Structures are given as C-alpha cells and as structure tokens.
Amino acid sequence: MEDVQDLGAELRRLAGTDPLDPIDSAALLTRGRRGKRRRRLLSAGGVTVGVAAVAVVASLLPDLGTATDGPGVTNADTPKAVTTTNAAKRSFTPVPGVPQGEAAVGEPLSMAEATRRCALRYPQYKMPLMKATWWSGSTAMYQRQQGSAELCTIPGGDKPSAELLAAVRRDPMPSTPAAQLRNCSVLFWTDLTKWRIVASESAPGVAASLIAVSPSGRKVVACDLAPKLDDNATPLGSGPSIYPVASYDVTKIDPAFNGHLDCPTYGVPCKGFTYHGQGRVSPKVARMRIEPTNGTPAHDVVVRDGWYAVAWFAKGNFTEWGAEVTAYDKAGNVLKKLTR
Amino acid sequence: MADRDRDYVEFVEAAGASLRQTAFLICGDWHRADDVVQDALYKLYLSWPKVDRTRSPVAYARRIVVNAALDSGRRPWRREVPTDVTPERVQSADPAIGIADRDEVLTALSSLGPRQRACIVLRYYEDLSIDQTAEILGCSTGTVKSQAARALETLRHAIDRSRHVRRAL
C-alpha cells in the first residue's frame, strides 16, 4: 500500500461493489409516517414521549438492580424471581414445531425456520423476510416493497391465549414485575414469567424498559412496554430482543455508551425529549447520569453488576436538545463522558 | 405529498446509496449496512423538521449512520450474531461475501477495531477533516490523529503481508 491516496482509491473501489437494490424511499416514507403515528399514540396529557433507543456499548457487565427517576441514586430491592403457576401454563399453547420456554429463543435460525415461524404468527404478511441470519426472539424485517414496513418478532414456542392477550390489552403497562413479565411474554411469544428482572425503569403511563435473565442464567430479554399493545416487540423502536447473556463483551474496560436522545415531536421548539433502552455495561460502572445540555435536571440511572434500564422523558419546550451521558464508578469517579 | 415528505424522499434518493457505502466500509457487511442505513433514515424522517437544512442533512444523517454502524458491531442488533457465539455458517449466494473473502483490503479493514475503521473511512473515504471526524466520533482531534496513524500502520502491514503470502504461493 503506497500511501493514503491508494487507500482512498481502494475504499472507493470497495464501496462500488454494492450488490443490493436501491433504497426504497417510498417504503421508508411509509415506515416514517407509521412511526410518527405511533409517537402520537404515546402522547398523554400534553406530555409527549418519543422513541429513543439506547444501545449501550461498553465492556463490562454483570448484577441486577432497579433504576428510579429523579436526581440522586436510590437503591431499590432486587425484584424476586416470579414462579410459574398453573394459570401461567394455561395462558400459553404450544407453537407447532417449536420447543417451549427458554430453549426456543436467543438461537440462530435458518431462513426457512424463521420464515415458517413468522408465517405462524403473522399469516397476513406474504412478503419474504430479508435475507439474513435471523435469531429467535429478534425482530426481523420483511423484504421492502412499495408501502411495506411490517416487522416480525420471531416467536418462541409459547403462543399467548386469547384470555392472556385480552388481559395484556387491558393493562399494557403494568407496574408489578410479574405483570410486566407477563406482558413481555405476549410480545415475544415466550413464557418469561419465570425469568428474573435485573433492571427496570418506568415513566408511568408513558414507557417502560426492563431487562430480565432466564432461569438458566444463559438468556436475557430486553423488553419495552408502551401504552398500547403492538403486534411486535418493538413498540418504541429497535432494540428489544432475546439473546445469550454471553453476547455482551465483558472483557474490555471501555465504557463507551451509544445512546439516542430523541426529540419526540417535530419542529422547533422540541416538546420534551426522551432517553430509553436497556443493556449491560462494565461492572465498574455504578451509575450513569444523563444531563440535558439545556439545563433540565439530570437523570441518574442505577447500574448493578452492569445491568441497567432507562425509560425517562423530560417535559417542556426545548429549542435545542442534547445531553451528556457520564458513567461513574462506586466512588463517584468519572469513568467515561459522552455527548449525545 | 407534503413539502416535508417530498424533501425527505429527494434526500433519500440522492444520498441513500452513499450512506450505505459508508456503513458498509465500517461494518463490513452489505446487509448489515443496509439495515443500519434504513434505520438511520427512518430516525432521520422522525427528526426531519429539526434537521438544520441550511447546513446539510447529509452531515446529520452521516453521523447517525456512523454511530449506528459502530453500534451494530457491539451489541445484538435485530439480526446480528453475538460475537462470542458462532452460529452455523449460512450458505449464501451473496456476491459481497465472495468479494470479502478474497479482497485483501476488506480483510485488512476488518482487522481494525471498529472506531479505527470508522476513523479511516471518514478521513480517507469521506475525505472529512480531522475536526469533522472528531465531531462525528465524539472524540478529540488528537485521538483521531492517533487512531488514524495506528490504523494506517495496521492496514499497511496487513496488506503487505497478504501480498507477500500471495507472491510466495
């Protein structure tokens, strides 16, 4: 490699090998309009909630805790595991050809199996799935066609009963861990009622974010709940999924947080902003502080053994919005600062 | 179609392919790049009215795409394979995979850390300045300079090594 000019030329050559179809602007527009409608549905009492996904990057991780709103960090009791009852068993029926419970989710699937499971759950969608390696418990996209913006949360082996579905529709954002896991079970078609919530946070009546570990300790579910039951597990945007606990990289001490601070409305000024998501960070992190740059009081998120969940919004009109996210260790030392 | 929607569609048709190319160079996979860009453009639509169009929505969109591309390599995305679990290799007729398998530059790029790769792509493919690169990556200009220097060194060694091996065969 001679010099940087050669490198630039090589990069341009690689970039020119795009084998995919052009991006479908019409489908994107449809999806965007749908997202706008979904945001409006989340509005309540003049307070608007937007879709914000926090993808956390950081090496580190492990312990459960519950974050609470407001400045200062408060500790909350770790929610106890929810035991299975016969009623829970009756709430689900088997899905043909899919094991029940933890075994069915957080595993890679063939295209054929992903397609089969999506057809079982969403028989109304006839489009093929996008070509990729799909995992059970993740939300797949269909190949984009004119006006197509549908999603398939690939189901596990526990189809919710009509009674369970009705109960969740009546109570889409419950406050108890047991009911939250019940509702998440409906979103993922997986009985999560025995899983253990390791972190959760709710913006009452607006959004809830939680993360729970399976009985074996090998799988984790990142679940969002919204005021209206959606037909897939991403009512507030991408992020929710079921995957192996081991997928989090805990080997590096590099707390880099990728977060999205989102403006839930349009135009200037911005009416409130949101910060939302869940994940696992370095075990060195004890607290994350989200500080809006416009002077709105900061929001602290408790992190225990790396687990955290955020569902926070701030009211008000903001002519500009952004935030600094800072990670602190137990002694209050700054580990990492990020600007969003 | 409202003006807002018309502007957005025009932007997507003009810039979508280029954004996907940038995402590909950072994450190394065309399908993942497509996923990243589709999601970024969706988020862009939701934020369209507040995007400062007196500057350039491309810069705004590029920032979302770069961060999403970096993020797609670090946590399970909707269809991403976790790094410590190796699923069965999916047979694919995707020509991009064949290209990646034998392209020494792409292989060398994949040997870089994600942020080094992003640094290289922004500096030498997007031709951004050090300041612009630092702003997108959320780091100092000194970090950009050192990351780029280390990345170039790694690329130089990797490509030279690959050429040496081919000559020896």
Topology:
The complex is a heterodimer of chains A (340) and B (169).
Chain A: H1 4-15, H2 25-42, E1 54-56, H3 86-90, E2 92-94, E3 108-109, H4 111-121, E4 134-135, E5 139-141, E6 151-153, E7 158-160, H5 162-170, H6 177-188, E8 196-203, E9 207-213, E10 219-225, E11 241-244, E12 257-259, E13 261-262, E14 270-280, E15 287-292, E16 299-302, E17 307-318, E18 323-328, E19 334-339
Antiparallel strand pairs in A: 1-12, 2-7, 3-4, 5-6, 8-9, 9-10, 10-11, 13-14, 14-17, 15-16, 15-18, 18-19
Chain B: H1 3-27, H2 30-47, H3 57-72, H4 95-102, H5 104-110, H6 114-125, H7 130-137, H8 141-168
Protein described:
The complex is a heterodimer of chains A (340) and B (169). In chain A, the strands form seven sheets. In chain A, strands 8-9-10-11 form a four-stranded antiparallel beta sheet, covered by helices on one side. Chain A has a four-stranded antiparallel beta sheet with strand order 16-15-18-19, with no helix packed on it. A three-stranded antiparallel beta sheet of chain A has the order 13-14-17, with no helix packed on it. Chain A is globular, with a radius of gyration of 21 Å. Chain A has helices spanning 4-15, 25-42, 86-90, 111-121, 162-170, 177-188; strands at residues 54-56, 92-94, 108-109, 134-135, 139-141, 151-153, 158-160, 196-203, 207-213, 219-225, 241-244, 257-259, 261-262, 270-280, 287-292, 299-302, 307-318, 323-328, 334-339. Chain A folds into two domains: 65-239, no CATH class; 248-340, Immunoglobulin-like. Chain A has six helices and 19 strands. By secondary structure, chain B is an all-alpha fold. In chain B, α1 runs antiparallel to α2 (30-47). The radius of gyration of chain B is 18 Å and the shape is globular. The N and C termini of chain B lie far apart (60 Å). The relative contact order of chain B is 0.10. Residues 75-101 of chain B have low confidence and may be disordered. Classes of the chains: A alpha+beta (340), B mainly alpha (169). At the A-B interface, α1, α2, β4, β5 and β11 of A face α1, α2, α3, α4 and α5 of B.
